[in-house]
Amino acid sequence: MRAALASLVAASLSVGCQHATKTRSQEQGKQRSQEGAAAKKPPSKEAPASTEPTKDTISTSRTTKEMFKTDGLKKMQRALAKNVPGLKETGQLDAPTQEALSAFQKKAGLPDTGLPDFESLRQLKMKPDELYEPQPPAQKDGVP
Amino acid sequence: MRLARAALDPYGIKAARADALNTPPHLRWYRQRWFWLTAAILTLVIGMRVALNPVATALTRKALTKIEGYTANIEATQVSVVPFHLTVRELVITQNDAPEAAPIVFVEKIEAQLLWRKLFQGRLVALAAIEKAKFVVTAGVSKTTPQMEEAGRKASAEVKANDFDFGAILQKVVPLKIDRIEVSDSEFTVIDGTHPKAPSFWVSEVQLVLDNLVTRPQLDENVPLTLTLRSKVAKTGVLKMLATADLLADKPAFTGQAQLAGLRLESLNEWTMYQACVSDKGVIDVFANFNSAKGKLGGDVKLMVRNAVVEPATSKVSDALKAGVANLAIKVLSDRVQGRDAVATTLPIRGSLENPDPQVWPTILGVVRNAFVQGLDWGFGDLPKDTADKPEGIIKQTAQGLDKDDAAPKAQPTKAGN
Q1: Which of A64, A73, A102, A126 has the highest number of chain B CBs within 10 A, making it the mutation to test binding with B?
Q2: Largest Cα–Cα separation, chain B
Q3: Which of B178, B221, B365, B388 is 20 to 30 Å apart from A130, CA to CA?
Q4: Before B103, cis peptide (omega within 30)?
């Protein structure tokens, strides 16, 4: 244990006392924007609605994403777009989709989780197996 | 002529009477079978509904008297035959020997109804909806009853005897199954009854749905059991959870994630002041990702404490010292990512359902990496953590973990092989 702590301190000193100032996604974003500037694409006229998660919505992990069928998510987004014009068919359970689903559930008198449950899907004229994969991803692909 | 007749009999009553009198007796409407059949059915349905309500209320109250150590009562029940529907209103449960006899459970409405689509498949399956429920647990005061302890022992023995085969256990339960459970606008409070000020922790606005609890191969609609949840925690945090599971597999399989975001540390001050004589400011976010199949377990819990400041709760020197040390540690271990100043790390958990293995060294490395190398992303984007192919020594883990060009510290494989 002492050896481990000593190696940790030594490694920290070798790294230097400069604190991390960016996250991995920020660095990747910066790299992408630099590449984008190099490609000289014309700027879009409208800023796209943010799909980033917020306190009231969640992003999905690598394994959770595999719970859903992409076509099913798009079909759900198409159905929700009747009440929320402009909702994009991203094929992902992103923040705008969760917000639209939450509004739909409130209107329908269902528990407003913002996440797709079977009754919400039925009221959107969908069957649960159109959205959900038949097995939990861990069962199909193994525990990562 | 027609106008004259209309003037004399503006509502057509006389004309209708004349028609009836002119109609042969066996064709008059009150002699028709369909009329009496319809009347009989309506009388039966209405009569049953009126008669069943007090019977159902009495039976439910009688069943509730069997709970030892607690007093339970309901306001009323309503029964509907078509469609079959049972509603229980204002269920109240209080603990008999609690000092204030405050209710520990209050439920405004519980509804159960049969699912017709399952009935056509030959199964009795129901939906249960719980509305505006309040649960209060007081540590040091709330007690378990002998029935609860016996039920707990039996359940534990059943699970062990079946080697965690929840599917086999489920199939032993009574035929009437609950396919869907909804909980809406409910809350849960934990009170520390051992403390004079009785600090409390409140989870409110609970919205929960459990779908497809009746999971049998021929009736599972080709989808797993699904859980969705949203609630507020201590007024400031938002808890969301999403999971799917297959309880019919030999060992339960599940995948899911839970997120607690934006919980302000000030809302926990009642507890921290009692436990450690310090109060905190800042925000904590927790992201948990979990997977299990064939007895193996893989989980990751990411913690982020943002903009944290610790203050002494009293003017004592010891409290000031504690707060000072804590603030120094926070200052050293925070990243400098704009807008957050977070102390963050991910705790990997590997192993099996029977023997989960939380891994400390990757967790410690994670704190250091977040502070000095690269800030952790907010959210689930980097979860689950990769697991190393072979066990790695501490020095190798440290070197890789602190290298910006290398990935974040990996979880270590266990003897179980994951």
Answers
A1: A64
A2: 113
A3: B178
A4: no
